[in-house]
Structure formats: structure tokens, C-alpha cells
Amino acid sequence: MKKMTTIAKWMFPFVAGACIATGCSDEDNRYNTDYQWLAIKEARDAWDGSSCNKKIVLEEEQTSDTVIYISASLYQNQPAPADCTVDIVVAADSLQKAIELSATENTAYQVYKDALLMDESYYDLSANQITMKAGATVSDSVAITIHRGALLRDPIRAENENAIFVLPLQIVNSSSLVINDVVNTLMLMFQLPQLDPTQPDMTDPKQEIDGMSLVWNDEFNGTGAPDPAKWGLEEGFKRNQELQWYKKEGNAEMDGNGNMVFIAKRERVANPDYEAGSSDWKKNRQYAEYTSASMNSSGKFEFKYGRLLVRAKIPTDLGAWPAIWTCGNWWEWPLNGEIDLLEYYLVDGKPSLHANFCWGSDTRWSGKWQSYNRPLEEFTAKDPQWAEKYHIWRMDWDEEYLRLYIDDELMNEIALSQTVNGSGGDGSLEGANQNPFSNDYEGFGAYVWLNLAVGSNGGDPSDSEFPMKYYVDYVRVYQ
Question: Among the four residues 86, 153, 300, 468, which has the most C-beta atoms within 10 Å?
Fold first, then answer.
């Protein structure tokens, strides 16, 4: 985080002035109304014998910025004998000292264990000075506006959900009154709502992970159609004798909440390629009874080696076939190689999650597969709300291995020494006897594919509720 102006003054003296902060009886002649010492009023109100904290817990449903007001006042609310001004500064050194004390046996400072100094871009002060008029018992207020959206997007939050962002405000440089060093600093502490697994992640992506840098991503934070600079949409009947007609409009929309939403609808669409009596499944259907969306980054972004992360919430209704996959940008399928981070469809009548690798065999358009599937019921047995939550699908790809994960649990892996294509027929095709996942061809890479199919391996959707929705929170690639 950015370095901010600091005041090297320790805020927690344990003896001098402590009685003033806690409030002594009027009979104690050491502290009477002659002691016109200035404090942050809210700090004095919050004093607990060790520090002055004001903790604010931001609620999940809250959308607006948070505004806090602070003011100054004298001991025992005495009226000011004269006009007084005092500067407000950020006391970063005081917070650092409290963080250091949190590692000791002094339990009073444990609240600072996960404290982070709030970045200056996350807040605004309405003024940098407090003014107290003669005769007044409290000064004018200064408003501190906390930008909730910026806080929620802080990438540190994704690493540490218990983190508390602290804005330590201190009054200094009084023009006419002595400052009470015990209650001159207020620790404004902001606890963010924990990341809700049923909601999109609004934090900004980490720029580095495990020594890799973010090279391409889409957070889907807008509204409307996907970014045409990053994605192309398919149209028509495409694969596996699926039931849906892929449309370029109306079935893939950013929802304004951080999602790309793929929407499968039960609606009739005329097939412009219809030919009565044709043996081609793409032509012998006069209508499609379902529509959905499929998009990929072909020609817009490809990568070779690295980490692909996709956070998504999938539909699990009968007939749904959501997918996250990649294909190579060279050679025909399957010589170009296919990697399925996610496919969800039926195996022996059971809904299952799949993680697969495919490359070319000795027969054209027939792949060699290393497939793995696990029934959905194994996930829901551990977490009955599994289908209501977002999960992270991950691919790690280097010169030697491919590995696929769900929520950091390894699902499938393969050594690239095993993925050399067969002849693809007579060996004359481009890509024959080459490795689609590891080769020296300039410009070779894999592109990202996201889609929601209906029917075929997904099962009969006739009795399922529509529209079906597949939520993709983000796509991120690190290298």
C-alpha cells in the first residue's frame, strides 16, 4: 500500500494522563476543571483503558459509502476559553506499534493482529483541521468518507478475510490548548463482510500468484454483452447433437453484479439451414426448442503455459451441460488438443463433474482421452449447499505437466510426455505426431472457451425449469 504521512507519536502511554482519559472523580484535586486538555471526543468516548477504537462492521447488503464524524472537546466537556484549531493527521506509526504489540502476550492488542493501514485512496476527509470556537463545548465535525467499493476490491481481502482496515486519526499542533496524549488518537477499524461463496467476488485480482503475473483477465463488472475485444460468440447448432441453438444476442449478458450470465431458454428458433430428410443433425431439425450461449477467446487471446482460473456457479438441473475448456489455436480437433477444466453431465445416470485431457489418435476426428469424473453427490455430501456457491476451476500448465483442480483439490493430471498426437489418419494432416500441449511452433497457444449446452450428455431437459443460468465471476490467466 502507499506510504502515508505519519506522526511518530505513541498513542498509548500507560501512566501519564490515564486518569484523565478514564475520568476521575471531582474530589480528586489533581484533575479538575482547570485542566483544559483537548481530545478527540469520539476517542475519549471509546477509551477502554488501553486504546481508543471505533469498530465498524460493513454489511454485505450495504452499497453506499460509510461516513464517520469526529470532533474535539475538552476534559469534562468544559467550554473552550478561546478559539482553537488543531490539525488532523494519519498516525501510521501508532498503528504499527499496536500491530507489533499484538504479537505479545498483552491481550488488549489482539484486535490489531490482522490490522492493515487503510490506503489513502479508500477514504476522504472533509477537512484537515478541526476548529473549536470560544465558549463551545464541542468543535465542528469533520466527516470521514470510507469508499466501501474500493475496500471490497482490495486484493489483500481475498487472502485474509479476517483483515481489518484501520484509519488511525490523530490531532496535533493545537493553536491554544494542551492536547491530551492518551485520547488524541482514534483508531477507526473497518471489518469487511467475509467473501460470500454465493456471491461474485468484488475484489480486484491479485497481480501476482506463486511467482506468476496476471497477463489477461475479464472480471465481467459491466452490463450487457461480453467485451468483443476479448470474446467471440458462436451461433447455431455446433457439437454433440445438443439441443440448443447458440445465439449471439440475449443469452450471454453481464448482469452488473460482476457476473457473465449464460442463460439457457426454452424457446423455439427456426433453423435457417434446415433440409428435410438430411442425414446431418445440424440440418434435419426444422427448429431448435432451446437457446443458449457459447463464447471463446480464439483470435483475441491465446496462451502457452501458466495458470487459468475461472470462478463460476453452475446450474445442476437435468439437461444442463456447462463447460470451461481450452483448445489449441493450430490444427484441427483433436490434433489441436482439448482441456476440459469443467464439464458437468450425466455418467450412468448420475450428474458428475469432469476434468479431461484429449489429444489426437491414429484416427481422424477421434481423440485419445484421459478423463476423470466424480459424481456431484460426493461434493454435496460434504456441503449440501455446494450447488448454490461459486467454485474455482484451475488449470496449471507447464513444460512437463497439466493439472486440473476444483477449489484447490486436484482432479486430474498428466505428463506432457504422454500427449503426443497419433497420425490422425495417414499422417499427412498438420499436427500429426506433434504434441498439442508442448511444442516449439511460434504463435502456438490455447484459447479459453465458456458455454452452456442443453441436452445430449446433459440429459433430457423436458421437466427442468427454465431459464437455466450459469454464472461466471471471472476468468484470469497468469504466467
Answer: 468
Looking at 129-177, list the stretches that DSSP marks H as alpha helix, in order from N- to C-terminal side: 148-152, 155-159
Which residues, including other chains, have CB under 8 Å from residue 352's CB and lie 6 or more apart? Answer: 344, 345, 346, 373, 374, 375, 376
CA 54 vs. chain centroid, Å, equals 27
CA distances (Å), origin 263, targets 267, 282, 290: 12, 21, 10
Model confidence at 195: pLDDT above 80: no
- φ, ψ at 477 (rounded to 5°): -125, 130
Bridging pattern class, strands 252-255 and 115-117 = unpaired
Q: Would you say 432 and 363 are in contact if contact means Cβ atoms under 8 Å apart?
A: no
Q: What is the DSSP letter of 168?
A: E
Reported pTM? 0.74
Residue type, 247: K
Q: Residue-wise over 287-322: b if at least 16 C-beta within 10 A, else e?
A: ebbbbbbbbbbeeebbbbebbbbbbbbbbbbbbbbb
List 233's β-bridge partners, or say none.
Answer: 295
Rounded CA gap, 123 and 222, in Å? Answer: 24
DSSP state of 336: T
Give the type of residue at 470: Y
Q: Is the pLDDT of residue 391 over 80?
A: yes
The C-alpha atoms of residue 227 and residue 231 are separated, in whole angstroms, by: 6
pLDDT digits (tens, 9 = 90+) for 27-85: 333 334 467 899 999 999 988 877 788 988 887 666 789 999 999 999 888 999 999 99
Cell numbers at residue 286, please?
426444422
Q: Are 373 and 352 in contact (CB under 8 A)?
A: yes
387 pLDDT higher than 70 = yes
In tens, the pLDDT along 463-479 reads 999 999 999 999 999 99
CA distance 382 to 385: 9
Rg (CA), the chain: 31
- Other Cβ atoms less than 10 A from the Cβ of 268: the count is 11
Cα distance between residue 247 and residue 249, in whole Å: 6
Provide the 3-class DSSP secondary structure of residue 419.
coil
- pLDDT per position as a tens digit, 212-244: 999 999 999 999 999 999 999 999 999 999 999
Residue 187: strand pairing partners: 53, 168
Backbone angles phi, psi at 90, to 5 degrees: -95, 120
Q: Which residues pair with residue 452 across a beta bridge?
A: 322
Q: Where are the alpha helices (DSSP H) in 140-192?
A: 148-152, 155-159
**Burial category of 341 from C-beta neighbours within 10 Å (exposed 0-12, middle 13-18, buried 19 and up):** buried
Which of 367, 368, 369, 340 has the alpha carbon at shortest distance from 355?
Answer: 340
Q: Output the CA–CA distances (angstroms, integers) from residue 338 to 334, 351, 428, 435, in the order listed.
A: 7, 22, 21, 12
Backbone phi, psi, residue 354, to 5°: -120, 150
